[in-house]
């Protein structure tokens, strides 16, 4: 860890982003581990994990932009890429699950017949 | 303050990765395993970025971008395989 | 579409996309210099030139201002949806009431439908699973479905109508 001299409020913002991101991603993975059927499990990673990692990346972007001269935009690229691809992969996995006729948890409304 | 928080955040992400491994191990169907692998990829991106800050390198984001690409393409390819039985139509 | 050598369509099929590629290149190398700008512009011309035969029809973005508003709404909703989903995950699973519903689309542009499906996947408690091209419907799974009609009305009002405004 290199030494940093940053005003405390900037450090606070970065820390808030990192911690919030880690917590949200943890909740997403917790949902993946505990929810009862595939279709509900799909919700955790597509939303929570993507936002969690996005927040971590924004924290990293702020850190490197403030520490070095100039802005570092690559982390923003990774974030945009993640947000653009998460719905697509969720859609593909959902289609595959429907094709394999995975059962929903009992009590699921309007379970499709196909 | 950042030096204290980064190990905490890395621990949280490591626990998240362990939960994904748990789902990968028990996942009743193969689609669950694909989902677990996809989430594991996303969490590892965060771990790489945090390690990058921790070591003060500022060069590991390329690795993060590559892993994001690999994770997306492999997830779509595996789902496609399950859908049609062929990766390339 | 075959066009002759001398037209802009032949050499520069999509100027905005070329500019976007050049900017993406600059962001990727994180270094704004004349050399990289030229290289990025070269790539921005070369990539569409070699690949535009494979692309579908271009979507027309008629109004950029509503698009900005749409992105802002989307950003707020992503944050909101994550808090909602996080709370649902933390509560015991027996309180969940998951369900599917069929969303009838009124959009007909492929690109707009893709954006709408992605939006549905990123916003509160819903994931789009299947697009039926014949009936023009989306099959959506909701983590907690209380009122089907209300969910459909919310999506229509909040996302589909602004998208219609942008693309038509």
From TrEMBL, chain A:
GO terms of molecular function: sodium:proton antiporter activity
Transmembrane spans: 12-33, 45-64, 76-94
InterPro entries in UniProt: PhaG_MnhG_YufB (IPR005133)
Keywords: Membrane, Transmembrane, Transmembrane helix
NCBIfam families cross-referenced by the UniProt entry: CPA3_mnhG_phaG, PRK12674.1-5
PANTHER family: ANTIPORTER SUBUNIT MNHG2-RELATED
Protein name: Na(+)/H(+) antiporter subunit G
Record organism: Halomonas lysinitropha
Gene: mrpG_3
TrEMBL record, chain B:
Subcellular location: Cell membrane
Keywords tagged on the record: Antiport, Cell membrane, Ion transport, Membrane, Transmembrane, Transmembrane helix, Transport
One GO CC term on file: plasma membrane
Keyword Transmembrane helix: yes
MF term (GO), any: sodium:proton antiporter activity
Primary site of residence: membrane
Spans through the membrane: 6-22, 34-57, 63-83
InterPro entries: MrpF/PhaF-like
Domain of life: Bacteria
Transmembrane helix found in the keyword field: yes
Topological category with respect to the lipid bilayer: Multi-pass membrane protein
Range of residues in the leader sequence: none
Family the UniProt entry places it in: Belongs to the CPA3 antiporters (TC 2.A.63) subunit F family.
Protein name (database record): Na(+)/H(+) antiporter subunit F
Organism: Halomonas lysinitropha
Taxonomic path: Bacteria, Pseudomonadati, Pseudomonadota, Gammaproteobacteria, Oceanospirillales
TrEMBL record, chain C:
Principal place of residence: membrane
Subcellular location: Cell membrane
Topology within the bilayer: Multi-pass membrane protein
One GO CC term, this protein: plasma membrane
Keyword Phosphoprotein among UniProt keywords: no
Family (UniProt): Belongs to the CPA3 antiporters (TC 2.A.63) subunit E family.
NCBIfam families for this protein: PRK08965.1-2 (NF006518)
UniProt-recorded name of the protein: Na(+)/H(+) antiporter subunit E1
Gene assigned in the entry: mnhE1
């Amino acid at each position: 860890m290199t030494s940093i001299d940053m005003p405390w409020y900037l450090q606070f913002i970065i820390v808030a982003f990192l911690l919030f991101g880690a917590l949200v991603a943890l909740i997403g993975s917790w949902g993946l581990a505990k929810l009862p059927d595939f279709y509900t499990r799909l919700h955790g990673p597509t939303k929570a994990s993507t936002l969690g990692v996005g927040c971590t990346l924004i924290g990293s972007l702020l850190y490197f932009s403030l520490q070095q001269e100039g802005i570092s935009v690559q982390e923003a690229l990774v974030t945009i890429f993640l947000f653009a691809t998460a719905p697509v992969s969720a859609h593909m996995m959902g289609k595959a699950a429907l094709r394999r006729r995975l059962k929903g948890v009992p009590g699921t409304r309007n379970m499709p017949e196909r | 303050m950042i030096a204290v928080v980064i190990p905490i955040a890395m621990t949280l992400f490591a626990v998240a990765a362990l939960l994904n491994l748990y789902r990968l191990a028990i996942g009743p169907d193969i689609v669950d395993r694909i989902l677990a692998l996809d989430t594991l990829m996303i969490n590892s991106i965060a771990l790489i970025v945090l390690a990058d800050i921790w070591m003060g390198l500022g060069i590991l984001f390329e690795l993060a971008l590559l892993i994001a690409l690999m994770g997306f393409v492999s997830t779509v390819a595996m789902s496609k395989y399950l859908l049609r039985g062929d990766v390339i139509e | 579409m075959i066009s002759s050598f001398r037209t802009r369509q032949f050499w520069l099929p999509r100027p905005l996309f070329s500019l976007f590629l050049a900017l993406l290149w600059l962001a990727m190398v994180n270094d704004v210099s004349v050399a990289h700008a030229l290289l990025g512009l070269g790539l921005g011309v070369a990539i569409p030139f070699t690949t535009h035969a494979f692309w579908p029809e271009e979507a027309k973005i008629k109004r950029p201002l509503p698009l900005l508003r749409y992105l802002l709404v989307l950003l707020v909703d992503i944050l909101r949806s994550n808090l909602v989903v996080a709370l649902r995950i933390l509560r015991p699973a027996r309180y969940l009431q998951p369900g599917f519903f069929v969303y009838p689309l009124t959009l007909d542009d492929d690109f707009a439908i893709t954006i709408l499906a992605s939006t549905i996947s990123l916003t509160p408690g819903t994931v789009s699973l299947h697009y039926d091209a014949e009936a023009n419907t989306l099959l959506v799974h909701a983590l907690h479905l209380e009122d089907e009609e209300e969910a459909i009305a919310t999506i229509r009002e909040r996302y589909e109508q602004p998208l219609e405004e942008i693309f038509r």
